[in-house]
Write a structure and sequence with these properties.
The complex is a heterodimer. Chain A is mostly helical. Chain A contains 22 helices and three strands. In chain A, strands 1-3-2 form a three-stranded antiparallel beta sheet. In chain A, strand 2 and strand 3 form a beta hairpin. In chain A, helix 2 runs parallel beside helix 6 and helix 6 crosses helix 17. Chain A is globular and about 65 Å long. The N terminus of chain A is likely disordered. Chain B is mainly alpha-helical. Among the domains of chain B are: about 140 residues, no CATH class; about 100 residues, no CATH class. In chain B, helix 8 runs antiparallel to helix 9, helix 9 runs parallel beside helix 11 and helix 14 crosses helix 17. Chain B is globular. The chains are: A mainly alpha, B mainly alpha. Chains A and B meet through helix 13, helix 14 and helix 18 of A and helix 13, helix 14, helix 17 and helix 21 of B.
Chain lengths: ~500, ~475
């Protein structure tokens, strides 16, 4: 009997949870992995996500293979190297630019499901952990990111591994080593891990007596960040080039939010509400608040340090949202796609369930209303997330269509067969479409790869849409077929 | 049952003390001080403001004082009230502004009485102070828009929900009747008012009279529009066509419409303040000995928000101006104060975090509210400048220095193109109300989106033309 089961009232939702609770753990988790596979197969079979980062990451991993430079690491573009190296390793064996990368992300992302359960169970009852893991499995943002060549799908399981080890009631040298290794790998994939380092250090400092363990943990966790910082400094002569290089783009990209607390907060909340609509967010807020105040959350009450560590662990989702807010506010974030809030929203999922149960006990009517509203939202929410994150509603987007330049551009593209602006098609065989205004920084990467490295343009499709100031960079092998004040469409010259 | 209801539904006594009276007077003074600069400036760049004045002015000028346009979506009492103002002081721009301003000042003591329904006197005074300095209230109370004028009458009706005396019920019905002739939002109070009347008016005939009298204005309007347009509820169906284009992504899409309405609400009530509101609502419902009218007061803002959402999701709302949230925000204030006081009592650290967060946001919040509500940002807006077509229009207007559109000087805030388009689309309404031959026509330009209305028969010279918009000069400008 868990501590929450005692409060349950016999209503429909809770009956479902008791059925879920009856299954053995391995059966339940295997079933979730199967559900994940079943939901991911259509995504794996469909074209890639409409985001140039996915293409550019794959390109960056692929190009050095063409020149036989397997260990090549690009220190200047801001992307940490381990994800690229991982992709390159797979490409090396499969010689497949697209499918293998996505399969790799899918496999690693699937491991995240049991890890998510294990981590959640450290804080919550088995019931809540199980329902939360179910939610995590069908979470559209996770499903989509788990089938693309983006870094989030690979990063998050490692992140969960670290959290799982750290939030366990008992921690040994062996498990700490696993956490540090996992953390070191994750530090080479996304900067988000760097923000967690102080939390790892606190665990080492407060839960171990040996100075050797403490020192080694701190040093080991800092190796990758230091190695990266030093190398970028050597090459760019700027200690934090990965942060400062974004400032210029950020100031243009999210100009109104720059140094504006009110608008930056609104921006982040807006995106958060896209991923977790209002009823979900309210439930998670209630869940988090209740959990923080529940004395049962802190089993080792006498040890203040352990209480504090547990408290800080609960605040992690807010901490990550706050970091995004700070970056938007400070102008080091050139745009804010939904996936930047993937960590925080995933970590909020168990709080939604916990909040729903708490509210049912506290204010049953409001609880039922919010749960029903959440269920009503689900169909349009899932549909919207799939449109927004996969095929991207760009050509059909109403707001875009009101903008003359975009409208002209789309009209132009529509004259071609539909496939021409289906930029989600595989570039290897079809075409590459770069949504205007979104990805100028990545255009430079592509340009760099195509120009300086004499990349075979076979990998890039017949049409490239660019922002006008950048079009001159892409002229090798292409001719301009359309141009307005803001954008150009380049067509590959075929002999 | 009656005894039970009487026990559960006893009203609060409205006390008077010199401190409360002084506090309310100070609030009125602050409101006058804050509102005065807006009276000296030009009107907000919301075409509705001009449209509303024209709607009242033109029949007044033609000595057709009682003219009511049943084929229009706009309810008639606002126009009639403005015309009454014109009789006293026939100043086209100034009279409507002053009238709204005075009614805005009058709404301050009424808001105090309304807040007292759920809050103790000192907290109600704090709520009244927040109400007084709310940027949206300050701005809307100095413009010839309906929101500022609606407020005191709606508050009268809302206060009557907290009182069981017959005098208050009669006052509430009168307030409601006037409000229901100004904006449709007042109609949403009907179920609560009926419930109140049924429970508190003892004699059956008095109940029937009271119930019928609440329905008079809405019923007259519905019948009038039916006679003139041939359809019931033409004021709703009229909007379906426009909203099916302008709000297409949100219609019958629960997630997106809810997202739209929430993010827009967050512009007016930023996150820390909204947290107070959530807590206030949930905690208040948990209060022992909760009286029914107090429940009504705490759910009222959510109820109004729900209806606004319903309008979007069903496609009867063609655009979503910030001022559509006005009543919602006003009704939220006592709930916010209640939530804040509860958090202060129980979690002081959280209270101070939220208060400091709110205070940090405030300067930029006020600036943005000024820009958003007065459309000051229109000309200085940098994303907007990218769109050559619209930019040409604004440049043109700016160079001509007309009375209507020139006060958008302060640059640098966020405004999107969609808003701009809605703005221009809405201005095409002028075409419906403006007598082009009239030499006294007060609007120098008409801006029309191409294809929006048939302009081929217009006798007006074209002043500017691009691929998307046309500007026509009116008789005033020709002079």
């Amino acid at each position: 009997m868990t501590r929450h089961q005692g409060h349950h009232r016999p209503i429909f939702f809770l009956k479902i949870s008791s059925v879920i609770a009856a299954l053995p753990e391995w059966v339940y988790l295997s079933a979730l992995v199967i559900v994940n596979t079943w939901l991911s197969i259509p995504l794996l079979k469909s074209p890639m996500i409409a985001e140039t980062d996915a293409y550019a990451r794959a390109f960056q991993a692929w190009q050095p293979l063409v020149t036989g430079n397997l260990q090549y690491i690009e220190f200047l573009n801001g992307w940490l190297p381990f994800h690229i190296l991982l992709l390159r390793g797979v490409f090396y064996f499969t010689h497949d630019l697209w499918t293998s990368g996505r399969l790799l992300t899918f496999a690693i992302s699937s491991i995240g499901i049991p890890l998510f359960y294990a981590y959640t169970h450290n804080y919550f009852s088995r019931n809540i952990a199980r329902i939360s893991t179910l939610m995590y499995t069908i979470f559209p943002l996770r499903l989509i990111l788990g089938t693309q060549t983006l870094s989030e799908g690979v990063f998050f399981p490692l992140f969960l591994l670290v959290l799982f080890v750290l939030t366990r009631p008992h921690i040994t040298h062996k498990t700490l080593t696993i956490a540090v290794i996992g953390g070191a790998v994750a530090s080479g994939i996304r900067y988000d891990m760097w923000f967690l380092l102080p939390y790892i250090w606190l665990h080492a400092l407060w839960r171990f007596n040996s100075w050797k363990t403490k020192t080694l943990t701190i040093i080991a966790s800092l190796i990758v960040p230091l190695w990266w910082t030093i190398n970028t400094n050597i090459q760019s002569r700027n200690l934090f080039s990965y942060a400062t290089q974004k400032i210029e783009t950020a100031r243009i990209g999210i100009h109104p939010e720059y140094f504006n607390i009110y608008l930056a907060l609104h921006n982040v909340t807006d995106i958060l509400l896209n991923i977790l609509p209002m009823p979900f967010l309210v439930l998670s807020g209630i869940g988090l608040f209740t959990m923080l105040h529940d004395k049962k959350t802190y089993p080792s009450k006498k040890n203040l340090k352990l209480v504090l560590l547990r408290f800080l662990g609960l605040l992690l989702p807010l901490f990550y949202i706050f970091f995004i807010f700070i970056q938007v506010f400070a102008g080091t974030m050139e745009w804010v796609p939904q996936r930047y809030l993937f960590i925080s929203t995933s970590l909020l999922l168990p709080f939604i369930i916990y909040g729903a149960f708490s509210l049912l006990n506290f204010r049953r009517n409001i609880g039922i209303m919010l749960i029903l509203l959440s269920l009503c939202i689900l169909p349009s929410y899932i549909k919207h997330e799939y449109t927004e994150l996969t095929t991207n509603s760009f050509p059909q987007d109403y707001n875009m269509s009101l903008t003359p330049d975009f409208w002209q551009l789309i009209t132009y593209l529509k004259q071609y067969p539909n496939r021409q602006y289906q930029y989600v098609s595989l570039p290897q065989s079809d075409e590459l479409f770069i949504p205007v205004g979104y990805f100028s920084s990545h255009l430079e990467i592509l340009t760099h790869m195509m120009g300086d490295h004499e990349v075979a343009t076979d990998n890039v499709g017949p049409h490239i849409v660019t922002e006008k100031p950048l079009s001159h960079l892409l002229t090798t092998g292409y001719r301009v077929v359309y141009e307005d004040d803001h954008c150009s469409v380049l067509e590959k010259i075929t002999e | 049952m009656d005894r039970y209801i009487a026990k559960r539904f006893h009203s609060y006594h409205i006390p008077f003390s010199w401190i409360v009276g002084g506090g309310v007077l100070i609030c009125i003074g602050i409101a006058a001080l804050f509102g005065y600069p807006y009276l000296t400036q030009k009107l907000v760049a919301d075409p509705d403001a001009y449209g509303r004045v024209l709607h009242a002015w033109l029949p007044f000028e033609e000595n057709n004082f009682w003219a009511i346009r049943f084929d229009d979506d706009w309810l008639p009492l606002h126009s009639l009230l403005l015309r009454m103002g014109f009789v006293v002081w026939p100043s086209f721009y100034f009279t409507p502004q002053v009238l709204t301003f005075l009614l805005g000042l009058g709404s301050i003591p009424l808001f105090y009485l309304y807040s007292r329904g759920t809050l103790m006197a000192s907290h109600a005074l704090i709520a009244t102070l927040l109400f007084t300095i709310l940027p949206m209230r300050v701005i809307l109370s100095s413009q010839p828009l309906t929101e500022g004028m609606l407020l005191p009458f709606v508050l009268l009706a809302a206060i009557s929900l907290t009182q069981k005396s017959h005098l208050w019920i009669i006052t509430g019905i009168i307030g409601f009747s006037v409000a229901s002739g100004i904006r449709y939002e007042a109609w949403y109070l009907l179920p609560f008012l009926w419930y109140h009347i049924i429970n508190h008016v003892d004699r059956w005939w008095a109940r029937v009279i009271a119930l019928i009298s609440t329905c008079t204005i809405p019923a007259l309007w519905i019948i009038g529009t039916r006679i003139h347009t041939g359809t019931w509820f033409s004021f709703l169906s009229n909007r379906v066509g426009i909203s099916s284009q302008s709000m297409e992504p949100y219609i019958y899409n629960i997630h997106r419409s809810l997202h739209l309405i929430t993010t827009n609400l967050l512009y007016i009530l930023p996150l820390p303040i909204l947290i107070f509101a959530f807590v206030g609502t949930i905690i208040y419902q948990h209060k022992p000995k909760l009286m029914q009218f107090q429940t009504i007061i705490t759910i009222l803002p959510w109820y109004y928000l729900f209806i606004l959402w319903l309008q979007i999701v069903t496609g009867t709302m063609e655009w979503l101006a910030p001022r559509f949230y006005f009543l919602i925000v006003i009704f939220f204030i006592p709930v916010i104060v209640h939530g804040a006081t509860h958090i202060y009592r129980t979690k002081k650290i959280l209270f101070w975090i939220l208060i400091i967060g709110t205070l940090m946001i405030m300067p930029q919040y006020i600036t943005r509210q000024q820009h958003a509500l007065t459309y000051n940002a229109l000309l200085g807006d940098s994303p907007f400048k990218k769109y050559a077509a619209a930019w040409e229009v604004v440049n043109f207007i700016n160079n001509r220095n007309p009375h209507a559109f020139t006060y958008a000087e302060p640059p640098g805030n966020n405004y999107d193109f969609v808003t701009m388009i809605s703005y221009f689309t809405k201005t095409s309404m002028f075409a419906n109300v403006l007598p082009f031959g009239s030499s006294s026509s007060p609007t120098p330009f008409i801006i029309v989106e191409k294809g929006e209305i048939d302009t081929s028969s217009w006798p007006l010279p074209t002043a500017m033309d691009n691929a998307y918009f046309s500007i026509y000069l009116t008789a005033t400008n020709k002079k």
